[in-house]
Every structure is written in structure tokens, then in C-alpha cells.
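New to this. Look over this protein:
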Amino acid sequence: MASTRPLRRLTELTYVGEFFGQFLPTAFGGDVVRILAFGEARSQVVAATAILDRMMGLFVLFAMALALLPFRGDVLTAEIVAFTAMVAGVGLLGGLVLLDGRLVRRGIGWLPGPLSLRGAGWLAQTYDTFTSTGRRALGAAALISLAYNAGLVVNNYLVGRAYGVDYVPLELYAVFVPVVVTSYLLPSIQGWGVAQGVYVPLLMSVGVPAETALAISVTVALSDVVTGLLGGVVFVLPTRRLLGVRPPSEKA
């Protein structure tokens, strides 16, 4: 069942998810809140949409990194090139396998009851919804994700320039950012600590001093906190409407 929610409501839920993602474990913490707050569509549809949204973002970042790596690989160490290519390559391949679904279902089809991806269980229905997404919808999601992630790369680049790092070109940030964003999936609170542990060595590999690299990484993370705080405002002020609770006078 398709959702009929207006763009404004979906935007609100996205910002609310960003807010809760600031203190819930891993990058999926805010997605869980979005699923719970989305009251109209079947939960399987909402969950599949949230997962697809997260996956398409990573998919576009990985594709961006692999496309630009050959043009900037000469200024990176062999270890950084190999690590970045491995993360992006595995991410792209894994995404394609998940979207296709056949190999995944065969691989874990033996799991019992609610954990199985076959049958009529909640998880199976969610995965069926996820894998049945049409090419047109995937293409539109990819274009939106490309615009968003291009902005993310530019944000990192501008933060670097603000710290006087004008010798690192925009293309290198497009190579580094996908690896850093992937680290958000590891156990942490919004990537704090993990992201810095990844970003600092990457920047140092192209000549950025350690203290400056750390400052860039922390500043970028703080910009995410600001976005999350905006989501907190959205959540607190119109809480009843945001969660789909209408006053008695507005009920049909």
C-alpha cells in the first residue's frame, strides 16, 4: 500500500529521525524512530522504505568513490586506495545482491519462522517489499541521493578550507566521505569516535596535520548535530501532529 503522506510530513519525519539518530546506536537508530512514527502505511512498507533510503545513500557514495578514485589514486597511498576500493566495491556488490534477493533468500532460507525471508512472516514481507521496488523508483531515489551526498561532500570540503586545508581537492573528499559514512554503521553513537578514527588517518595520508584533521572531523560531526537539533525542534513543537494524533475537532 503506497503512502499518501505529503512531502512536508515526510520531511518532518526525516528531521526527527536525524534528531534521534544523534543519541541512538548506529546510523539506523533514527531510522527506527521514523518507522515507529510513520503511522499510516503497513509497517513492512515503512521499514523497507527506510532501509532502501539508507542503502541508496551508501550506494551512491560508493559509486562516487569508485568513479573518482582512478583520477586521484596517484596522491594516495596504496593502502588507502586498496581500503577505499574494497569498502566501496563490497558495498556496491552487497547492495546489488540485497536488491536482487535471490541469493540472499537461498543463503538464509533455512532460518526458522520469523527469521526466515520466505513465507508470510513480518521479515519476509518486508524483504519482499524491499526487493520489489521498481527501477523508476530506484532511479528517482538515486538522483535525490546524489544531490544530497554531493552536498555532504561539499560541506566536508568547505570545512576543510575553513581550516586552511586548501590543498585537498574536492574529489578527494568524495573519495573519503563514503568510507567515513560507512563507519557510522559500526556500534557507536552517531559515529562519534569511530568516524574520527577513520577520517583522521585518511586526511593525514594527503598531508593534513593530525590536529587539523581531527578538527575537520569534529566540525563536520557537529554540523550533523545542528541538523539533529533542528529535528528536535520539529519533534517537540508539533508533536501531536507529527505522530499522527489529531485533535478531536479535526477527526472525521
